[in-house]
UniProtKB/TrEMBL annotation:
Residues that hold Fe(3+) according to the record: H79, H81, H248, D322
Keyword Phosphoprotein in annotation: no
Keywords: Cytoplasm, Histidine metabolism, Hydrolase, Iron, Metal-binding, Zinc
Domain Amidohydrolase-related intervals: 71-408
Organism: Acetomicrobium hydrogeniformans ATCC BAA-1850
Record function comment: Catalyzes the hydrolytic cleavage of the carbon-nitrogen bond in imidazolone-5-propanoate to yield N-formimidoyl-L-glutamate. It is the third step in the universal histidine degradation pathway.
Binding site for N-formimidoyl-L-glutamate: Y151, N324, G326
Location of the protein in the cell: Cytoplasm
GO MF annotations, alphabetized: imidazolonepropionase activity; iron ion binding; zinc ion binding
This protein's pathway: Amino-acid degradation; L-histidine degradation into L-glutamate; N-formimidoyl-L-glutamate from L-histidine: step 3/3
Catalysis: reaction(s): 4-imidazolone-5-propanoate + H2O = N-formimidoyl-L-glutamate
Listed name of the protein: Imidazolonepropionase
EC identifiers of the protein: 3.5.2.7
Cofactor mode of binding and number, as noted: Binds 1 zinc or iron ion per subunit.
Length: 414
């Protein structure tokens, strides 16, 4: 057995109540100025004030002095599209020149251009590309993450993506797979999108669920993509097959995606830039967790999702990168944390909760990660500062000194 004692640490962590935190709870975190963490075989055995933790050290332990630096839980990124090949820099320039996301999609760009690349890529090429993204996320403090499919848009290529995602689990990042065959309508179904919905519902979802390739099913409910009725049909089929439910809701237009999320009591509703107050109220009443993506709004030069209003209404809020090759090429949860404070008006404490514990609840991992507590995995980040606020205060700098996954250090150098 391996016993490690991390001492001389300033600890900042949410405390798990067995559910996502909401409202004023998101401002309540545990902190310890002279703290320590005792780790046995990758799990936290004791954590708290250093003198108290030392009482539990009854055998030889490897001691690591953290020099009074801040320690937070490893980031949990609950919304990514990290399985892809190639980038879309030219589309970024088009956006700067005024083209909208949906206009680019209609021109055959956007998601469909990445679909072409993923379909053409071999399994090994896709694995290598995805592994690089995951490793950059780890170096930037993400120790657990979700990855969606959705750049295959056929049974074979969606399976290829999910098999790549499955092969990367635990190497060393914990990864949750989400099936998102309903990410866009492929070119071959442009004239008959209903037939594609039929394919997703009748063939893709049953096959992927039977193979155990995904934990969740997601759908892009948006104008020119999938309607509310399409989304309802797809998500109900996924639930029938035992998959958890997620929805890209009201990103560009308020189609009623937030209300659908509340109606179906999905595990999380994501984006929500254009969600109505009625939709958000319904989500609060149904306890639906909102996953917000401030780096995407920043990249697209759009207004941020109304995070303050959501918290005040009682919607539990999580944060994610939305890492993808088009609208937001970002693996850094530190950047997301920074934007949540400086752009969305969240407090340091709210941003920490949203990027760790609530994010873990969004992907069903809170039993194991998301907070630094006894029995959970020893996944944590050491910052070059005294509080988590350093990540918003020290702009233009990566403030992550060390990243630990189950008590094992991984280089933070990129």
């Amino acid at each position: 057995m391996t016993l490690k004692l991390f001492r001389n640490a300033r600890i900042y962590t949410p405390l798990d109540k067995g559910r996502p935190l909401r409202g004023s709870e998101m401002n309540q975190i545990y902190s310890e100025e002279k703290g320590a963490i005792l780790i046995r075989d990758g799990y936290i055995e004791s954590i708290g004030q250093e003198l108290e933790v030392l009482k539990y050290v009854t055998e030889d332990a490897l001691e690591i002095d953290l020099g009074g630096r801040c320690v937070i839980p490893g980031f949990v990124d609950p919304h990514t599209h990290a399985c892809f090949v190639g980038t879309r820099e030219r589309e970024f320039i088009l956006r700067l020149q005024g083209a909208s996301y949906l206009e680019i999609l209609k021109m055959g760009g956007g998601i469909l251009s990445t679909v072409d690349k993923v379909r053409s890529a071999s399994y090994d090429e896709l694995y290598t590309s995805t592994e690089e993204v995951v490793n950059r996320a780890l170096k930037n403090g993400t120790t657990s993450m979700e990855i969606k499919s959705g750049y295959g848009l056929s049974l074979d290529h969606e399976v290829k993506m999910l098999e790549v995602i499955d092969a990367l689990k635990g190497k060393p990042v914990d990864i949750i797979a989400t099936f998102m065959g309903a990410h866009a309508v492929p070119r071959e179904y442009k004239e008959n999108p209903k037939a594609y919905v039929d394919l997703v519902v009748e063939e893709m979802i049953p096959h992927i669920a039977a193979k155990g390739l995904a934990k969740y099913c997601d759908v892009f409910c948006e104008e020119s993509v999938f309607s509310v009725d399409d989304a309802r049909r797809i998500l109900l089929a996924a639930r029938k097959c035992g998959l958890g439910l997620k929805i890209h809701a009201d990103e560009v237009y308020d189609l009623g995606g937030a209300k659908l999320a509340a109606e179906l009591k999905v595990d999380s509703a994501e984006h929500l830039l254009a969600a109505s107050e009625e939709g958000l109220k319904a989500m609060a009443e149904s306890g639906v967790l909102a996953v917000l993506l401030p780096a995407t709004a920043f990249s697209l030069r759009k207004s941020y999702a109304p995070a303050r209003k959501m918290i005040e209404m009682g919607v539990p809020v999580a944060l994610a990168t939305d890492c993808n090759p088009g609208s937001c090429y970002c693996e850094s949860m530190e950047m997301v944390f920074r934007l949540a404070i400086l752009g969305m008006g969240l407090s340091m404490e709210e941003s920490l909760v949203a990027s760790t514990l609530n994010a873990a609840y969004a992907i069903g991992m809170a039993t194991h990660v998301g907070s630094l507590e006894r029995g959970k995995k020893a996944d944590f980040v050491v910052l070059e500062g005294e509080t988590p606020g350093i990540m918003a205060y020290h702009l233009g700098w990566r403030n992550i000194k060390e990243v630990y996954k189950m008590g094992q250090r991984f280089s933070s150098e990129v």
